[in-house]
Write a structure and sequence with these properties.
By secondary structure, the protein is mainly α. The chain contains 10 helices and no strands.
Length: about 180
């Protein structure tokens, strides 16, 4: 969760649903998993926040152009976060934690705008807590119903894995293509 919030493409949708799944198996406590997930998001977001604050917009643009393709970060995503922050103000720091893509990038404009760090932390933690909770709950429910869907999954296992791999390849190809443009 920390890595995702530091702009490294490790999707929380996978991380937290897996944590919920493990909670369903009794391997971990779901509430602890949600708190750790939200805390990880906060820590990573604070790193990105301070990067935005210390380095500024110009340096971040240069860094994205130079290294963004390696971690699938594009200037277009950064621009979207900037626009949203300017349009919706500091409250988007909370709301964006519930949205894919923007949730990762909103810390940079918040830092650039020199948002109050306490307010940023509260908005980020509460939004991340909700996001982590929903995803962990989905994983928990999947874990509780695994035996029900297992026969169907086994029938289509190769197809599902193939589609998953194709989706990842398409996603990477699409981002690399956008970075060349």
């Amino acid at each position: 969760m920390t890595a995702e919030s530091c702009l490294i493409p490790i999707p929380s949708e996978v991380t937290m649903t897996f944590a919920g799944f493990l909670a369903g198996l009794g391997v971990m406590n779901i509430w602890v998993a949600v708190l750790i997930g939200a805390s990880g998001n906060l820590f990573g977001s604070l790193l990105a926040f301070y990067l935005g604050r210390k380095m500024g917009e110009e340096w971040i643009r240069v860094a994205i152009k130079k290294w963004g393709k390696w971690i699938l970060v594009h200037e277009k995503d950064f621009d979207m976060a900037l626009r949203w922050f300017k349009k919706y103000g500091q409250g988007i720091t909370f709301g964006s934690r519930l949205l894919p893509i923007v949730r990762t990038f909103i810390s940079l404009p918040a830092g650039i705008a020199e948002m109050n760090v306490v307010k940023f932390s509260v908005f980020t933690f509460i939004g991340s807590l909700l996001w982590s909770g929903v995803l962990a709950f989905l994983g928990l429910k999947l874990g509780q119903n695994w035996q029900i869907i297992d026969p169907y999954f086994r029938k289509f296992q190769i197809l599902i894995v193939g589609l998953g791999i194709a989706a990842v390849i398409f996603y990477i190809y699409h981002h690399l293509k956008r970075s060349k443009e």
